TrEMBL record, chains A, B, C, D:
Residues 1-107, 137-258 form the VOC domain. Keywords: Dioxygenase, Oxidoreductase. This is Catechol 2,3-dioxygenase. Pfam families: Glyoxalase (PF00903). It comes from the Bacteria. InterPro entries: Glyas_Bleomycin-R_OHBP_Dase, Glyas_Fos-R_dOase_dom, GlyoxalaseI/FosfomycinResist, VOC_core. PANTHER family: GLYOXALASE FAMILY PROTEIN (PTHR21366), METAPYROCATECHASE (PTHR21366:SF19). One of its GO terms (molecular function) is dioxygenase activity. Residues 292-312 are annotated as: Disordered.
Amino acid sequence: MFTNRFEESLDFFVDVYGLTESGRDADSVYLRAFDDYEFHSLKLTRSKTTGVGHVAYRTSSKAALDRRVAAIEAMGCGIGWTEGDMGHGPAYRFRDPDGHVFELYWETVVFEPPSGEAPAIKNIAQRYHGRGACPRRLDHVNLLAVDVRAIKAFMVEALGSRVTEEILLDNGRLGGCWFTVNNKGYDIAYAEEHTGTPGRFHHVTYVTDQREDVLRAADIFLENGIHIETGPHKHAIQQTFFLYVYEPAGNRVEIANAGARLILRPDWPTITWTEAERKKGQAWGLKTIESFHTHGTPPIENAGGHHSGDER
Amino acid sequence: MFTNRFEESLDFFVDVYGLTESGRDADSVYLRAFDDYEFHSLKLTRSKTTGVGHVAYRTSSKAALDRRVAAIEAMGCGIGWTEGDMGHGPAYRFRDPDGHVFELYWETVVFEPPSGEAPAIKNIAQRYHGRGACPRRLDHVNLLAVDVRAIKAFMVEALGSRVTEEILLDNGRLGGCWFTVNNKGYDIAYAEEHTGTPGRFHHVTYVTDQREDVLRAADIFLENGIHIETGPHKHAIQQTFFLYVYEPAGNRVEIANAGARLILRPDWPTITWTEAERKKGQAWGLKTIESFHTHGTPPIENAGGHHSGDER
Amino acid sequence: MFTNRFEESLDFFVDVYGLTESGRDADSVYLRAFDDYEFHSLKLTRSKTTGVGHVAYRTSSKAALDRRVAAIEAMGCGIGWTEGDMGHGPAYRFRDPDGHVFELYWETVVFEPPSGEAPAIKNIAQRYHGRGACPRRLDHVNLLAVDVRAIKAFMVEALGSRVTEEILLDNGRLGGCWFTVNNKGYDIAYAEEHTGTPGRFHHVTYVTDQREDVLRAADIFLENGIHIETGPHKHAIQQTFFLYVYEPAGNRVEIANAGARLILRPDWPTITWTEAERKKGQAWGLKTIESFHTHGTPPIENAGGHHSGDER
Amino acid sequence: MFTNRFEESLDFFVDVYGLTESGRDADSVYLRAFDDYEFHSLKLTRSKTTGVGHVAYRTSSKAALDRRVAAIEAMGCGIGWTEGDMGHGPAYRFRDPDGHVFELYWETVVFEPPSGEAPAIKNIAQRYHGRGACPRRLDHVNLLAVDVRAIKAFMVEALGSRVTEEILLDNGRLGGCWFTVNNKGYDIAYAEEHTGTPGRFHHVTYVTDQREDVLRAADIFLENGIHIETGPHKHAIQQTFFLYVYEPAGNRVEIANAGARLILRPDWPTITWTEAERKKGQAWGLKTIESFHTHGTPPIENAGGHHSGDER
């Protein structure tokens, strides 16, 4: 994630949102939630702008990585291999149809808690430190795309994702689409970009164990002067209990809870929502706030010369 | 699940625990939680005794079913095919090393909510009816086995399960073992049977969305005269927030919450607990109640002529 | 409370909201929450219209009743004594400056749970039945008044209430005022009536033990087709976690949670909110829904010949 | 509260339990919860031992203070006036029949939040800082007494307290007694001291808004190496959701939640529990841990020359 207010964004993610720093280099700090098993789940990078540099997936095995790379190369959208990063080994880069950069890797750096951060119970990655909103783990990212239908076909072919839910607009376009490669309802989602600007970022989400943690987070955001965009409330789609804020540089960040809902059905049929259904608002009747359909990062006014990807 | 107090057990599961009846035949009622996608997740059967008749898994595909059947037949523990049941199609039966009967099937009956039970939001299986403890879905079963180490080898080979956690006793035996075939921490667990009696049942667990639902369930059990064995508290192993009761016929039933904890690491290493660690008690210090190590169904005194499996 | 859809309203209050019927006569059903200690806390009455017939307070002693009656008679707004009701003894009636009828009484009928409703733990009034939203107890009522400033002076003098919070509009009028006679933040509140119609009702509120109960209630209302007006969210004023619905006849009903907040300071100074502060919306930024300022019962179109009070 | 491990106790109360320091002098730090309206609610004092120096009540008015002092002087147990403390004005001291020192005062120092601690919403005392367990406010203290029946008579006469619940042992003695001067179920409780040693302290309790906060506190205590004695569970008596720990010097500290339960009945009859009822354990069946009946501070072995009161 890029930020043009690096120190403020870092303070937000560590002291208010409750992630932990596991490493840093010249331009980036590597962050993780207390039960993320990898070295990092969010790389915050000093930049002239905001938005997302890339999204990375760890594959389920070395063989799975090879299969994915072969599929993506056959699709003609590969970029090539990088040597990896502080938190993982060699990664294969590619672009989605909207220009967002992705990485796939198998070799990872498993988090080893430093002294004072070891958990009291050894089956979680790090102690529950209780600082800030303190979510448990990375859950998903949400990206904007000019053509969500193209994304739908792409993700299924490139990553083998399942499409769990989607919004079918009256004009035949997809307003949004939710994908998963595991038993969660989604690990990535896309929403339609209305401005024609490619490569933008909608939000990143970490999850808490309980909805009460989301309500508590609302008080923490409020008391720390963080802009709350909307929530807490429950989405109709995926039934996620949500709360959206803008971190100091303007990137949208969610803290959420999914309860015990999982996609345990192997032949789960995609749930298709109509435009009329979407207009009903969220699960308990909250009208979707207008900015949720328009705010993305980087902002459009700065996006003239924007090229998605790590080149900041 | 067998019960020798059929009407009382049924009242418990429907009105107190909060499952819904989706069908019945001469000897059994088919029950499900509100977001179980299949016709049923618990078949309650009138019997002379208690315990479990069989445990069934739906495979991830028809091909997966064929692979598992081939593996199990090669292991020499298969029983053969049945025509299925009210809730699913043809099933392949086999026995674990302790004599418990299992089934595997692919063809299932997806639950279609009758009038009045359709959910307000169409991405869950049935409306949240709010009756009784009202858990969301089946989570796991726990069986007793004389030789848990034999089970550990068996489940990995027969079902392709991963071993997420285990208890290694000082005498070299396994005191317990937790298995999963998906991203949950476990879908089945085994605990050591100290009496030498094979085929016994420890408990079945449905999960709630929130820990508060478990606390609320405690009041519901209390007010309905249901015996609470232990909890609510948090297990150290798997960190599940648990509450155990005995349904009227004596089968142990749990209602639990796992928060946002999932096994998302594909190369998750088995967590091994020592006997000393187990003696420390549960996560927040509660000593494990003695009956948790001894109570199983059917009771030993009735188990003389017991043969596990559906022959009741 | 009056309803012109008596059966539907009663179904709502018993099966969805979770009150219990403790008695009935020709036109009314007497309802109570599980831990209300009195025979009833809500009298639902068949009527041609909606709104509130009267609001009743039990005094803290017989002597206190006498003192209040003397004070009210001196103020010239008394109506006189009634013989009481199924749930309480003789009551003294009076009108607030907006015409709402009030009663004061000391002798009450303490609820004696019938067979099957006795609590498992004897220090609460009735068992936790868990039906519907199942709030614990009556918390407060909220009335509309054309002149809230007149109400402010009145309640302090007539009931000895403390004013805990208020909204001071830029035009010098009071937009709302919150009163208490005990350690709760408020037992009655008034909001400004913009139509000039006196005697209208804004809402009645029962409270739950936990915020999770309010979130759960939202699902119960949703699944039962009850109109959710706004929430769940947290009020800035009084910091109550709220959820407002319309019962089938249109009366607004709230279910709420106040956490551990109490007014324990004997010299609590009134918190005064400006119009600008109110415009900021609720605690976490939710904009106050327009209907919250306009919807009251009975509706204005039916209110032409309306006389507040029990004459329905 | 006295501590012979001052720095460790202070670290516990500030960083783990989540109180805030509002002042200090040579031997004491003044602490408060975020919504306590007074300067302090806990004075932690460096000492050779542990236990409680005195318990202080603010009266409801200056006149009430005068009435209480007159009553206490008439009872012959008064000590006399002190000039007050950093947090309040002149205080009248007296002893309960077990020798514990009490103070009564009217003039207080209302907390004024320093820069950075002002709440986002102005109707609470300090911002919700979210540090540690972060309870909302002081709730009650619990003292040990050799003769609880003498205490029962004393508190009613000296403070005008109401007796809300009590334990009547088979031998005719009182095992415990709960008192209140407001709408809470209790502000002070006494349990029988079995050793004959007078003046000991059982625990102090702050409350959270939600039970989830208590569960979360359990994780925080666990991760910080704080000894958890028992809980979380629900007491049968008062139905408080409790969690007891020992602060580093050994004083027992509770964090609790009472839900929406209040004593709103002015003629509340004392609930009397028999010894048999107490033996049933806590609300959901947890057996009361033995140390709960024996552990008090200061420990008995150090108590030989102990004189209760501030002389440390």
